[in-house]
Amino acid sequence: MIAFAIAAFLAAGPAAETDHGLVLRAMELAAAAQAEGSAENLRMAARLLQATGAAPQEGTPDLAGEWLAAADAMDPQTEAAAPDRGRAVGPGYRRGVATPAGAVEFSEIFYAGQSATVSLQPTAEADLILQVTDSDGGEICQRSAQASSASCQWIPAWTAPYQITVRNTGARETAYYLVTN
């Protein structure tokens, strides 16, 4: 089932615009492939992530590359697919961990007049809060992400860095994926 869904998307060609849902879906599919021990499905999830055009944000690992290496370690006999090249500028993602009652903060520059989206997906049931503020500290958006994803979308009035905060209001450490455009 995983292989069919990924193969259908890849056959359609590279996405003209990255859909945050597809990036998050690739991450979910990779987790399932790792749990199944399926090198083939893990490679397909990596290709799906690459096909979206999303790239790791600065200082974070290349998940598609990690998945391809893990697939090679699981089954070195399976032929590795040639890597797809993403856009030089475009969406980004990061994998992170929020400690209990802790927060992770970083900034991203978004361009004036262009739709800006930040999506947060916890990897398990969680009490995470996604918050975006402008350079003056004004709140742009605040959303709760528990078992499902949460997204903030807006159109910046000016090109500037925006502060993104992932806050864990729960009592246990929680892993998450965050996708930006």
If you had to describe this structure to a student in words, what would you say it looks like?
- This protein is of the alpha+beta class.
- Helices cover 29% and strands 32% of the residues.
- It has helices at 2-11, 20-36, 39-51, 63-74, and strands at 55-56, 92-98, 103-110, 116-122, 128-133, 139-145, 150-154, 160-168, 174-180.
- It has a five-stranded mixed sheet, covered by helices on one side. A four-stranded antiparallel sheet has the order 3-8-5-6, with no helix packed on it.
- β5 (128-133) and β6 form a beta hairpin.
- α2 packs antiparallel against α3 and α3 (39-51) packs antiparallel against α4 (63-74).
- The longest helix has 17 residues, at 20-36.
- It is globular.
- The two termini are 29 Å apart.
Descriptive keywords:
single chain; 181 residues; four-stranded antiparallel β-sheet; 4 helices; 32% strand
List the helices and strands and how they pair.
Blueprint: H1 2-11, H2 20-36, H3 39-51, E1 55-56, H4 63-74, E2 92-98, E3 103-110, E4 116-122, E5 128-133, E6 139-145, E7 150-154, E8 160-168, E9 174-180
Parallel strand pairs: 1-2
Antiparallel strand pairs: 2-9, 3-8, 4-7, 4-9, 5-6, 5-8
